[in-house]
Amino acid sequence: MVNHTREVIVGKLAILALVTCVAASTFAQNSSPALEDGFKAPPNSAKPRVWWHWMNGNITKEGIKLDLEWMNRVGIGGFQNFDASLGTPKLVDKRLVYMTPEWKDAFLFTTKLADQLGLEEAIAGSPGWSESGGPWVKPSQGMKKVVWSETRLEGGKPFSGALSHPPTVTGPMQNIPIFDFLAMIGGQAPTAPPTFYADTAVIAYRAPTSDIPLWSLRPKITSSSGSLDLAALTDGDLVKTTQLPKAPAGQQGWVQYEFSTPQTMNAVTLVLNDPGAAAANMFGAAPSIADVEVSDDGQTFRRLVDIPNDGGTEHTIAFAAATGRFFRVGFTDKPAAGFGEMTFDVENPFGDFSGMKPNPNFEISESLPHTARCIR
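Given the sequence above, the corresponding structure tokens read:
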């Protein structure tokens, strides 16, 4: 049956190729002048469209006219109007604030002129990159995240008490606050985000026998340099950090867990508190800066898995079960953030980051191996 299906598909492809070749040959003989004319004077449907940003209210009818006439002159078929803000300095006598009467008048002027020039016009659903967000959206109706807390109890007996409260901070994950990257690059003070919290569920379940809290195994924590605290690495606080100095070029920094007897691990959690790195890496993963290693003697280590450096704040990575007395999270000397070596022209609206220096430390909020299989 499989061979028959393949034969049918190949047959259809062969017939399609033959028909296509014949049709293309006929078209080439009969339509060459028309095709050539189409390239010389493309129809409007074939012309490119562009994003047209109105930055921080720097809008005048004179500027609108010059932009649209230029688009038409160079062969652009239309635009998407995008009202945005990146801390652009004031370049006009009076900024036109989004949806004020003056802004609407300028946009009406734009629409009429675009129609006269035969340009296709589109507009984003709201200012900025929020698509449909704005102060009219109540916090209870906006985007939300799931937060959680964990309380471990001894089974087989009643419990009376208060469960630890989940985080209430507005931000990407748990108690990590919003990092206003646009405010940073624009030199502006970040605005306070709206807040919302509501209980969803209380879930009680029997912990798997393989899920052993790390603290109960009493590992000895050491590092390539500096002094790290086990409590700080396992307390669930993703904001408070402990510092691991970065190793010299060509060397590796590490956090090591030494157990009195061999232990089997199945996953590891790593949280680096570096908002700048997260913002820099979100548009494309940077090379991994950390990995997990295991050893029986503390001298010869075997790599288990790389930890991605993709802008995510927390990574819990599962790997094939590994047994040993020594487990390490190793770090390369490559700094996570990408602003230290960047220079910009003084007229660049993003500002000048050349004075910013890389952090000499890895800011570690959480780093712990797991005896149970888990991912997050």
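Residues 44-123 form one domain. Try to locate this feature in the token string yourself.
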